[in-house]
Specification:
The protein contains 3 helices and 20 strands. The protein has helices at about 5-20, 135, 165-170, and strands at about 30-45, 50-55, 65, 70-75, 75-85, 95, 110-115, 120-125, 140-145, 155-165, 185-190, 205-210, 215-220, 225-230, 235-240, 240-250, 250-255, 260-265, 270-275, 295-300. Strand 15 (about 235-240) and strand 16 (about 240-250) form a beta hairpin. Copper (II) ion binds next to loops.
């Protein structure tokens, strides 16, 4: 097994195990094992097209689709990801901010990577090989770590992405991709866009006035996405691996490429409200508005 973390993380892991071993009743560090298969797949768009992408698929066989699997964890978990490279070029597995940046797995090979999650939040995983191309072809995914002792009424996930049809079709045809030309024309949340996001229970903010709602956001795209809330201001409470000293109350929050954030919302009014990228181009699908990066809050009295 390859340990993709630094020695610092390894020592931290030993420390955690020792502490848990000496405190009766707190010895339940879990190990979560996940298999991911890198292979070609498809993105089904809001304008009923099918685009060729690369996927971290959860199944060895069968057609792969975006979005890539969410990895759901609890605070204290150890994650073991075994990456099976079924593609014909090298791919790796990185969790941004935690390790794996130098990983590279040969075609037809498998490797296991270890990560530790001592704190709640959300992280982005991606292929660190051939950046930014492989990331732009679809190889990103979300990790959500829940504090099982914290209290909230519901939690949600928005995995943001944008896709350049030019890059996807060049890659499928085996042609070189010019990274100086990046013109994304599809913009997704959890692999969906437009009103289709309402069918995703991880994306639709469903709740009641007074609820304590948590929203995990990871930007797997190569561009900044600025999320604008109608109906509410939210509290930005955590970003890029660290809590804010004080919540930042905002109705528009910019998430840079590769960025992560945690919003807290206690709705003060009922209604159905859109939340969308403030860059209008990103609310389109191949130029058609509003089939892009938009989600909804559906709050009952
Ligand atoms: Cu707006």
């Amino acid at each position: 097994m390859k340990n993709s973390n630094s020695m610092g993380h390894f020592r931290h892991f030993l420390l955690v195990v020792c502490v848990f071993a000496t405190i009766p009743g707190i010895g339940n560090t879990r190990t979560i094992a996940v298999d991911l298969y890198v292979k070609s797949g498809v993105l089904e768009t809001a304008d009923d097209r099918t685009l060729p992408v690369l996927c971290f698929a959860s199944s060895e066989t069968g057609q792969a689709f975006l979005p890539n699997s969410e990895i759901g964890l609890e605070v204290g978990d150890e994650l073991l990801v075994t990456l099976h490279n079924q593609d014909d070029s090298y791919h790796g597995f990185e969790v941004l901010g935690l390790g794996g940046a130098g990983s590279s797995v040969a075609p037809g090979s498998s490797e296991t990577f270890q990560f530790l999650f001592p704190e709640a939040g959300c992280w982005l995983y991606r292929d660190p090989v051939n950046l930014p191309i492989n990331q732009g072809l679809g190889l990103t995914g979300p990790i959500v770590v829940i504090d099982q002792n914290a209290d909230h009424d519901a939690e949600f996930l928005w995995h943001l992405n944008e896709f350049s049809e030019g890059w996807l079709t060049h890659h499928e045809a085996g042609e070189a991709i010019d990274t100086a030309i990046y013109l994304p024309n599809y913009f997704t949340v959890n692999g969906r866009s437009g009103a289709d996001t309402m069918d995703d229970p991880r994306a639709l903010l469903a709740g009641q006035v007074g609820d304590n709602l948590l929203i995990h956001v990871v930007n797997g795209g190569l561009r900044l996405h600025s999320l604008h809330f109608h109906g509410y201001h939210v509290n930005l409470v955590w970003r890029d691996g660290a809590p804010l000293s004080e919540p930042w109350v905002k109705d528009t929050i910019a998430i840079p490429a590769g960025g992560t954030a945690l919003f807290q919302l206690t709705p003060h009014q009922s209604g159905l409200f859109p939340i969308h990228d403030h860059v209008v181009q990103s609310v389109t699908a191949n130029g058609v508005y509003p089939l892009g990066m938009i989600v909804f809050a559906d709050i009952q009295p």
